[in-house]
Amino acid sequence: MHTTGNPEALIGGVRAQIQSLDPNLAITNVQTIGEIMDQGLCAPRMGAALLTLFGGLALVLAALGVYGVLSYSVNQQTREIGIRMAMGAERAHVLWLVVGQGVRLAGAGVALGILIALVAMRQLSGLLFGVSAYDPVTFGAVALLLMLVALLACYIPARRATCVDPLVALRHE
User: Fold this and answer.
1) Long-range contacts of residues 26-30, Cβ cutoff 8 Å, at least 24 apart
2) Rounded to 5 degrees, what are φ and ψ at 61?
3) d(CA 146, CA 62)
4) Coil, helix or strand for 15?
5) Widest CA span of the chain, in angstroms?
6) H-run or E-run covering 30
7) Which parts of 77-135 fold into alpha helices (H)?
8) What is the full DSSP assignment across 71-92?
9) Which helix (H) or strand (E) holds 65?
10) Which end of the chain, N or C, is surrounded by fewer C-beta atoms within 10 Å?
11) Residue 173 pLDDT class (50, 70, 90 cuts)
């Protein structure tokens, strides 16, 4: 039955009308088109939710990896950073030196990832329905998000590098 209003409000009236025509007719499992579509889309929605969860987990792991690599790099460069600070380098310059290292690494990774994704989209475009495989807004948004996460992951070791005491750093082995 087609209606422009709320279909659930009409179920009782339709059931009563059918029962008045044939009282022996059993009316069971009455569903709206929305409910039927929700049942059919349950598995794809669950898959999308799981992929979103795993994508978020991958983003967290990538951020921790960038943080770990930068933290190790800053630890290895403690003497160099101390010499720079002793020679009069400003904290802002040291901050941008360390953040710049991480952003360059992340930028190279994002560029390589976009190239791989563009190649993979050619193979996966047949699996998409109603969505373009080459969506520049999505590619740009994901690249921007990854760069922001990398920037935040780089900022913590960079901030720690600016707090290095030159005397302690020069004694550091």
Assistant:
1) none
2) -65, -40
3) 9
4) helix
5) 97
6) none
7) 78-86, 91-124
8) HHHHHHTHHHHHHHHHTT--HH
9) helix 42-76
10) C
11) low
Q: How many CA atoms lie within 13 A of 128 on its CB side?
A: 12
Tokens 């630890």, residue located: 75
3-state secondary structure of 12: helix
What's the pLDDT tens digit per position in 61-103?
888 887 888 788 877 877 788 788 888 888 888 888 888 888 8
CA distance 67 to 143: 18
Residues in the chain: 173
123 — pLDDT class (breaks 50, 70, 90): confident
CA angle 41, 42, 47 (to 5 degrees): 100
Read off the amino acid at residue 39. Answer: Q
pLDDT digits (tens, 9 = 90+) for 35-54: 888 888 888 889 989 999 99
What whole-number distance in Å separates Cα of residue 124 and Cα of residue 103? 30
Q: In angstroms, rounded to a whole number, what is the distance separating the alpha carbons of residues 129 and 131?
A: 6
Tokens of 170: 């020069």
DSSP letter at 29 equals: -
For 49, phi and psi rounded to 5 degrees? -65, -40
Provide φ and ψ at 24, rounded to 5°.
-85, -5
